[in-house]
Design brief:
The N and C termini lie close together (6 Å). It contains 14 helices and 14 strands. By secondary structure, the chain is of the alpha/beta class. Strand 12, helix 10 and strand 13 (287-289) form a beta-alpha-beta unit. It is globular. It has helices at 20-34, 67-80, 93-98, 118-125, 138-142, 183-192, 206-216, 232-241, 258-264, 277-280, 293-300, 308-318, 321-343, 345-361; strands spanning 2-6, 38-43, 52-55, 86-89, 107-111, 131-135, 149-151, 171-176, 197-202, 224-226, 244-247, 269-271, 287-289, 378-380. The protein has two domains: 2-155 and 321-380, Glycogen Phosphorylase B (Rossmann fold, 3-Layer(aba) Sandwich), CATH 3.40.50.2000; 159-318, Rossmann fold (3-Layer(aba) Sandwich), CATH 3.40.50.
Length: 392
């Protein structure tokens, strides 16, 4: 299959530090290419994902969620990916406002990585019927029952995560400095359980800085080590040696990639049963789910009951990159068969030829663009598998 992936312009793929969605897109792109597909990723120029890449913005765009930069980015993406059989969009604007620009016969898929709020439900309801929507957990899907969506869990690259003994003598928090993620709750839980805490937290945004200064810093003491944001390799080492991940989220998180990351290292998870946590953590087997801080304090004293090998096995079975890639591959194939039945062989061949022609003549520069950081669609060809087999 000729597959185009569209990432948002806010963070490179893969992310240099914090960035769950971008880590998932990186795994998906690499995994699809490893299975023999012709993959092109539209992202930002500083991305390093080792597949063919195109971009409009050279660097990640500041101001996450800004409408105009995202609109320019996705317009360029759909032009760049005009010859693709499948366009899989991970932005918000693309599936709603740009998808209709795709050539006839192109299979369109949209994964929503954020919560289904009243605003996003209204937006996704306006998508063309031709776009297949993906939710990332059953709980996520249930928060927008009026939207037809397929559930596909995220996956992690198990080659990047090795099991550890949990012998560091500390509990670990990984997330953002925000009330939703609850670093202050993690501090209270660890302290009450008599365990040191290592705090790995993003605090770049103004609201995160405010939460750090006003809520978290007054709780700090010698039993709390604040690390800040770290790259994947360092994060994996912290997971491997942690007794448990403390994940006291207080919002309906659609997935929560940090939980499978911890489990992949053999590290059990202590969490509130909000959002998708009950779908990821097997209570009493790969961690403990409790409704309040006191419950998690008591659970922390029972971590010796958890077999860390079971944590790793659960990720291998349910949350691997290979499983995620196979699920998306099956969805693409199903949608392509449906599109072929609707269009017929002759119409489909003509549509493919037209898409290739459009790809050859598309503009490489935005007319009148004076911004040196944007306005050029660039494609980088990464070394990958041989795509000469038409069955690929």
């Amino acid at each position: 299959m000729r597959i185009g992936l569209v990432a948002a312009p806010w963070v490179p793929v893969p992310p240099p530090a914090y960035g769950g969605s971008e880590a998932v897109i990186d795994c998906l792109a690499r995994g699809l290419q490893a299975r023999g597909h012709d993959v092109r990723l539209f992202t930002v120029g500083e991305s390093t994902c080792p597949v063919d890449r195109g971009w409009w913005y050279e660097s990640a765009v500041a101001g996450m969620g800004a409408t105009l930069p995202e609109a320019a980015h996705v317009l360029a993406a759909y032009e760049d990916l005009a010859d693709r059989e499948v366009i899989h969009d991970h932005t918000t604007l693309g599936p709603v406002f740009v998808a209709q620009r795709a050539r006839s016969g192109t299979v369109l898929v949209a994964t929503n990585h954020g919560p289904f709020t009243p605003e996003t439900r209204r937006v996704y309801a306006a998508m063309p019927d031709s776009v297949a929507l993906v939710a990332i957990s059953r709980h996520h899907r249930a928060t927008a029952p009026e939207l037809p969506a397929t559930v596909i869990y995220h996956g992690v690259d198990l080659e990047c995560y090795s099991p550890g003994a949990g012998d560091g003598g500390y509990l670990l928090f990984v997330g953002r400095m925000s009330a939703d993620k609850g670093p202050e709750r993690a501090i209270r839980i660890a302290r009450a359980a008599g365990r040191p805490l290592v705090l790995v937290a993003k605090s770049r945004d103004p609201m995160e800085q405010e939460h750090l200064e006003k809520v978290v810093k007054p709780l700090l003491g010698p039993d709390v080590t604040v690390v800040g944001e770290v790259a994947l390799a360092e994060r994996v080492e912290l997971f491997r040696h942690a007794e448990a991940l403390v994940n006291p989220i207080c919002w309906p998180e659609p997935f929560g990639l940090v939980m499978p990351e911890a489990l992949a290292c053999g590290t059990p998870v202590l969490a509130f049963p909000n959002g998708a946590a009950p779908e990821i953590v097997d209570d009493g087997r790969t961690g403990f789910l409790r409704f309040d801080e006191d419950g998690l304090v008591r659970a922390a004293r029972r971590l010796g009951e958890i077999d860390r090998r079971d944590c790793r096995r659960e990720v291998e079975r349910r949350f691997s990159m290979q499983r995620m890639v196979a699920d998306y591959e099956a969805l693409y194939a199903r949608l392509l068969r449906r599109a072929a039945l609707r269009s017929g062989p002759a119409a489909r061949s003509a549509a493919v030829a037209a898409g290739r022609a459009r790809s050859r003549v598309r503009l490489s520069r935005c007319p009148g663009s004076a911004n040196t950081s944007a306005g050029v669609v660039v494609t980088v060809h990464a070394r990958g598998p041989d795509h000469s087999n038409p069955l690929g």
